[in-house]
Amino acid sequence: MQTVLLTGFEPFDNDLVNPSWEAARQLDGVQLGEGARIVAHCLPCAFATAGEHLRRLISELNPAMVIATGLAPGRSEMSIERVAININDARIPDNLGQQPIDTPVVAGGPAAYFSTLPIKAMVKALRDAGVAAAVSQTAGTFVCNQVFYLLQHRLVEAGVRSGFIHVPSAPPADQPPLVEALRLAVSTAWLTETDVRETGGQVS
Ligand code: PCA
Questions:
Q1: pTM
Q2: Cα 193 from Cα 204, distance rounded (Å)
Q3: Of 93, 98, 100, nearest to 14 (Cα)?
């Protein structure tokens, strides 16, 4: 049985819950086809500890795919992230009170990494199911981008597909619940070998 590691984040910025973890934890143990199942874990929202937590999970679980998720306050759609950048620039302190400004995620690392998930197929599957979704060209410069960058830095050469999804605070009332949207995004990622060719671009 293969493992798809799915992470969410603990609450931050004085919130009491983080919808990314509320959705991810409900998918713990869910089967993806015959050969794989989701294992869900929560990451701390702290620059100093999130990466180490993730590194430990990856070495313990040896996952065949990793999808990290976090909350994007103010966004109203599922954001399938395309790119992680090598910069920390925190607008607010993290949960340990740290607020790095313009520091690299990995000193000397490449400027950016791309998601290795089938991001267009994921957006299409979500939209077909009535979920507002889009390719996002930036995962920000806070802890989510840091985790996304560290994930890609570690796994791109290992050939393990990985990426990041930002979830909205709450989907509009006429849309499927977040947990169903996340289940669909994860299963599409797992089951899609070759991404679909469909624009996810923006002019501005
Ligand atoms: N969102 C933050 C960090 C944790 C989370 O859920 C971010 O977008 O960086």
A1: 0.97
A2: 30
A3: 93
Nearest CA among 71, 65, 57, 51 for reference residue 8:
71
Active site residue: 41, 45, 77, 81, which one? 81
Active-site residue flag, 52: no
First to last CA, the chain: 43
The Cα–Cα gap between 89 and 141 comes to: 5
Superfamily holding 2-191:
Peptidase C15, pyroglutamyl peptidase I-like (3.40.630.20)
Distance CA 60, CA 129 (A): 34
91-107, pLDDT tens digit by residue?
999 999 999 999 999 99
pLDDT tens per residue, range 165-187:
999 998 888 999 999 999 999 99
Q: How far is the CA of 150 from the centre of ligand 1 (A)?
A: 14
Helix and strand counts by DSSP (H, E) for the chain: 5, 11
| Nearest atom in ligand 1 to 45's CA | 4
